[in-house]
Inverse folding.
């Protein structure tokens, strides 16, 4: 009951932004719930929040399990405007930028964004983001952005399940974190940053918080192809630049795995 009251308070606090929320004590996937709500005619910025998520998923169909009380799990419905449709690939980093801003402003910490959208603290993953689109024929009807944030140690998967080092906010900060306060800050920043989608300020903020700049990385595609080199930055379209000797690779956002190259 306390959680329901906290979510109600956050919803009222953000009502001026048009945000409506559904809180679930347990669900399989907040993204699936939000996609279903979208199909039923959800309003802009409809948000599904769950205390527990039993069959959540991340990029590449990885499991993303949310233990009760341990993490923030939220999925938001957006309806891309005509001018935003050329920037659909930027909706995932939009969430990463919104969360990074919320963490900076609320906790005074310095997150980084591992291209294209994972949020890191001390080079360990604290948040994953999955964006899914809903089409009717050839018409894009909406976008759902799912965001998971590790709050307490119970949110971190077993070591053998990790594909990238992970951490949680309470470990990094050394004190209790109110996930509903973070939810409020994140959603408010999501609305604010959306107005800058694709603009210079958007790309500049992303670049300034980009992880592993000027360091050796490798990118592995889903088909196994590997590109390695020095990570240099991102383009105005959100593509990643990798410098390998005299050759510059331009990697488009998509199904790629980015990690530091072993020394």
């Amino acid at each position: 009951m306390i959680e329901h009251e906290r979510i109600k308070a956050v919803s009222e606090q953000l009502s001026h932004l048009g945000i409506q929320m559904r809180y679930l004590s347990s669900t399989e996937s907040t993204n699936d719930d939000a996609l279903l709500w979208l199909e039923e005619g959800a309003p802009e910025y409809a948000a599904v929040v769950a205390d527990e998520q039993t069959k959540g998923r991340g990029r590449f169909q990885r499991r993303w399990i949310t233990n009760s009380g341990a993490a923030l799990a939220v999925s938001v419905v957006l309806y891309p405007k005509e001018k935003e449709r050329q920037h659909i690939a930027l909706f995932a980093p939009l969430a990463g930028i919104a969360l990074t801003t919320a963490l900076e402003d609320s906790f005074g910490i310095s997150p980084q964004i591992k291209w294209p959208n994972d949020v890191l603290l001390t080079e360990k993953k604290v948040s994953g983001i999955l964006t899914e689109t809903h089409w009717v024929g050839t018409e894009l009807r909406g976008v759902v952005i799912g965001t998971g944030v590790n709050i307490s140690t119970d949110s971190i998967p077993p070591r053998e399940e990790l594909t990238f080092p992970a951490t949680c906010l309470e470990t990094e900060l050394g004190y209790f974190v109110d996930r509903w306060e973070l939810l409020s800050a994140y959603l408010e920043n999501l609305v604010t940053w959306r107005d800058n989608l694709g603009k210079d300020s958007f790309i500049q903020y992303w670049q300034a918080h980009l992880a592993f700049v000027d360091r050796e990385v490798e990118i592995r595609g889903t088909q196994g192809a590997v590109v390695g080199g020095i990570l240099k930055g991102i383009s105005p379209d959100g593509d990643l630049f990798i410098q390998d000797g005299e050759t510059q690779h331009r990697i488009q956002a998509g199904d790629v795995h980015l990690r530091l190259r072993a020394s």
Summary: The CA atoms of residues 122 and 171 lie 11 Å apart. The longest strand covers residues 124-136.
